[in-house]
Amino acid sequence: MKCCFCNNDEAKEIIKPSGTFTDYDILKTKHICSFCNSIYKDAKYRRSCWILNNKDSIFFSKDKILENILNIKIKPPFKVFITTSYKKHGYYKTVWNYSLDNFQIRFDDLDIDFGKEKAIEILNIIETFYYNGFIKKEIESGKYNIKKLLTFGKDKWLENERKIKLMRGTPLFKFLLYCINPKRKDE
Ligand SMILES: [Zn+2]
Question: What is the pTM of this model?
Answer without folding.
Answer: 0.90
